[in-house]
Amino acid sequence: MTITPLMPVYPRCAVRPVRGDHCHLIGEDGTRYLDFAAGIAVNLLGHSHPGLIGAIQQQAATLMHVSNLYGSPQGERLAQRLVDLTFADTVFFTNSGAEAVECAIKTARAYHQHGGDPNRFELITFNNAFHGRTMATISASDQAKMHSGFAPLLPGFRYVEFGDLQAAAAAIGPQTAGFLVEPMQGEGGIRLASQPFLQGLRELADEHDLMLVLDEVQTGVARTGTMYLHEQFGLQPDILATAKGIGGGFPLGACLATEKAARGMTFGTHGSTYGGNPLAMAAGNAVLDVVSDPVFLEHVRTLSDRLKTRLNQFIGNYPDLFEEVRGRGLMLGLRLRTEPRAFMQHLRDHHQLLTVAAGDNTLRLLPPLVIGDAEIEEFFAKLSAGAASFPMSQVA
Ligand SMILES: *Cc1c(COP(=O)(O)O)cnc(C)c1O
């Protein structure tokens, strides 16, 4: 037998974290890493936040899980808070981002099919998108690397160039149900939608009675300096998928919708055994207690400005290595002149700085939102040392 007990779908690196301490991870061998990956934009409060730990401990000791056959005071509270904080009128809780997107896709289709138009099933999606790894969510992305071996894909998705409003308009037909788009692509390389593009999609949706579905799984929950990134565009979606940071490390996601958009989501149309269980709701409420505070959101924007200003000065010292600083809030990207994996590994293995590689030659910087000046100083010390010692022979 040569297959590993953990199905070998991830090329796992040699770092083996066993403990977290605020913005640091400690490996099996005792090595301490500065964590600017945060579990891929998940650990908003870092790794040992007393509020989050306390909430989970207390709820675990009280009631963990009962299924959705029963009333949920815990779920009602978190749903009401999300409704109060956002465009949404109603919330379905999931256990992951892909499930949140799945629910969003079903909600968009049901909007039309419940409204008497069974032919409107197709979502227009965008090149280099990432929506998850389930059959529907890989089908929603044009990325061939995620399709290989898994044919046939699910019908009902049409891909157009990210940012090309005219192509999106031209793709609308009698079968179109809506648009599914990340307001800033994460996995695709920290690519922010332009104002005219996103606003144009909103206008096209209004004009043709289509659903604007935003995938804010990575950009949501204060990560970009507002509760959700679309707020910074001055527009609202009909349906939104959120996950990653929302549980602060506890598996949790949600599909948010307006009352109109959710008209097809009636009794018996959707479900989840675990979704929104009391333990997950306790984690979600504890995260919201911290991140929905306007003072905290201001802190994220202030630190973002500080990081971006210094990053822009810094990359000027290494024009052969870096091209551009990207992103919003604490979802930042360093665009390299080469594929970013070698530099990511160099920072990790030689300077104990964890980051995440993405598409479009971009290195993602996704620190916990609770970083402060000390972590920023440590980050620049490690990044500078990493850039200075990086063998430029690795830049093609
Ligand atoms: C991570 C991600 C997903 C999938 O979330 P999972 O929890 O891994 O299923 C979907 N959309 C976007 C934009 C993401 O970044």
UniProtKB/TrEMBL annotation:
> Would you tell me the protein name for this molecule?
Acetylornithine aminotransferase
Would I find Amino-acid biosynthesis among this entry's keywords? yes
The alphabetized UniProt keywords are: Amino-acid biosynthesis, Aminotransferase, Arginine biosynthesis, Cytoplasm, Pyridoxal phosphate, Transferase
Q: Which cofactor does it need?
A: pyridoxal 5'-phosphate
Give any single GO term for biological process. L-arginine biosynthetic process
The keyword Secreted belongs to this UniProt entry's keyword annotation: no
Q: Which locations, inside or outside the cell, does it occupy? A: Cytoplasm
Q: What's the subunit arrangement here? A: Homodimer.
Q: Which NCBIfam families match?
A: argD (TIGR00707), PRK01278.1 (NF002325)
**Which residues make up the binding site for N(2)-acetyl-L-ornithine?**
R133, S272
- One Pfam annotation, family name? Aminotran_3
Another remark in the UniProt entry says:
May also have succinyldiaminopimelate aminotransferase activity, thus carrying out the corresponding step in lysine biosynthesis.
* Any one annotated GO CC term: cytoplasm
> Kind of enzyme, top EC level?
transferase
Pathway per its UniProt entry is: Amino-acid biosynthesis; L-arginine biosynthesis; N(2)-acetyl-L-ornithine from L-glutamate: step 4/4
Residues that bind pyridoxal 5'-phosphate:
G97, A98, F130, D215, E216, V217, Q218, T273
Note how many cofactor molecules are bound and how: Binds 1 pyridoxal phosphate per subunit.
Q: Which domain of life is it from?
A: Bacteria
Q: Which EC number(s) does UniProt give?
A: 2.6.1.11
**Residue list for modification N6-(pyridoxal phosphate)lysine:** K244
Which GO terms of the molecular function aspect are on file? identical protein binding; N2-acetyl-L-ornithine:2-oxoglutarate 5-aminotransferase activity; pyridoxal phosphate binding
Question: According to its UniProt record, which reaction does this protein catalyse?
Answer: N(2)-acetyl-L-ornithine + 2-oxoglutarate = N-acetyl-L-glutamate 5-semialdehyde + L-glutamate
Q: What is the lineage of its organism?
A: Bacteria, Pseudomonadati, Pseudomonadota, Alphaproteobacteria, Sphingomonadales
Similarity comment text for this entry:
Belongs to the class-III pyridoxal-phosphate-dependent aminotransferase family. ArgD subfamily.
